[in-house]
Amino acid sequence: MTTQHVEELICSARKLYDTEEYLAARALYTQLLASDPFDARMWHHRSNAHLKLGYPELAFTDAVRGLQLLDDTLAKKTLSREDQNDAVLLRLDVLYTCLLTAEALNSFQMALQYIDRLLANVHLLSSDACKVVLEKQATLRNKISQRISTLRGANVPSGVSIDTISNLGTMHVVKYPWDVSEPFTATNDLEAELKELNSAFEPFAPKLKIVPMPDNPALYTPELTSSISFSKVDRPQLGIIARKKIKPKERILDEAGIFVNNGLYGPKCNYCNGVLSISASNSNEMHKTTCSGCGERFCSVDCLHSALETYHKVLCGRDISHILTYVAKGTSCSSLIHLVVLRLLAIAVQSKQHPLEMTIVKYLARSAKERYRQVRFLDLLYAPKQTNT
Q: Which SUPFAM superfamilies match (predicted)?
């Protein structure tokens, strides 16, 4: 994409945003990000578009990505004074967007963290901006206090109202206007979905079964499965029951999972993440467990064959060193998500399936009665206890 074309797209996106055509503006920002995924400004612009469209979860993700890129940029010692000043000012804008999106997600503790970062640069804020930030800080602290008081009002031993945090295990799946694939529709047959789920579940959990649950899981009984009542809002939540008697200390779930190899802790098997033997004394055995196409080593013949059957044919010989290098720089386990996504996409391409239609993906999240409930609960877990003074 030429520089002139990029400037034209940016100008068009800005005009669309200013005329409140946020969906069209979002499409152009997405196109620009596909061209340059390391442009913090575009992540910030798309975050604002998502926020205007009413998708704070996407707005937050975009804003945090832009903030991460700016933090990485400002950590460089080769920046010119002009580039450094531009990055610092843009980071203030992005921090404020992070604050707004966290607040929209009702994650007040997280919003306060961004306020702390903004106030650390108070000398760069205008008096009006500083006043707005301080007012938000006071409002958020008050909301946290009210929330904690409400939860502790039930006077239960744990200090938390059981009714308030019920059904925390459910998830919410948002349908976006630009979605081209929807695994679940109103015409989906729940019975067929459960059959597919249990077929995939049985090999590593033969004594367990996935079943639909009522709004209150405590009321579930096998005899009443066909007459279970669900709320009218969303699809029923699912639960796991025992289909056979389970002995004490018996292992009931043994799943290999989708493992990744980041190479940070010595040579690992690319399929199961098991440690590879460094010894090359048995060259014949090593030859059997090495991919002939790219030289990738596996811990066993079974792992090599399993990798070739599921994903490795797509990745064989491809240079993914830039992804591995990026992951290696990560400071938390969350950086490994890039390798998980890479593995999932490789499986999808090799199996000729849409990524969202794969069984291992489409059942990861189900609908819930209330959006972002889990985010709010985590917020409460880390909220400091209030003391009377």
A: TPR-like (SSF48452)
In the predicted structure, residue 352 carries a pLDDT above the cut 90: yes
Here the tokens at position 305 are 């064959």
Q: Which residues neighbour 225 within 8 Å (Cβ) at sequence distance 6 or greater?
A: 211, 212
Residue type, 26: R
In a domain, 316, yes or no: yes
Of 369, 372, 342, 347, nearest to 359 by C-alpha is: 347
219 SS3 class: helix
Domain range for 144 is 3-152
Of the candidates 213, 175, 179, 180, which has an alpha carbon nearest to the alpha carbon of residue 194? 213
Determine the Cα–Cα distance for residues 318 and 148; give it in Å rounded to an integer. 52
Identify the three-state secondary structure at position 210: strand
What is the largest distance, in Å, between two alpha-carbon atoms of the chain? 74
| Structure-block tokens of residue 367 | 């609908």
Decide which of 255, 275, 295 is a domain's last residue. 255
173: Cβ–Cβ under 8 A, 6 or more apart, which residues? Answer: 184, 365, 366, 367
Whole-angstrom Cα distance, residue 44 to residue 32?
12
Ranked by mean pLDDT, the top range of 137-141, 170-174, 383-387 is 137-141
- Measure the CA–CA gap between 100 and 93, rounded to whole angstroms: 11
Number of structural domains (the chain) is 3
Rounded Cα distance between 71 and 329, Å, is 13
pTM of this structure: 0.68
CB 25 within 8 A of CB 9: no
Q: Which CATH number characterizes residue 23's domain?
A: 1.25.40.10
User: Is there a contact between 299 and 272 (Cβ–Cβ < 8 Å)?
Assistant: yes
Residue 191 shares a structural domain with residue 327 = no
Q: Nearest-CA neighbor of 219 among 230, 208, 233? A: 230
Beta bridge partners of 255: none
Q: What does the pLDDT read at residue 187?
A: 55
Nearest-5° Cα angle at 371, 370 to 372 = 120
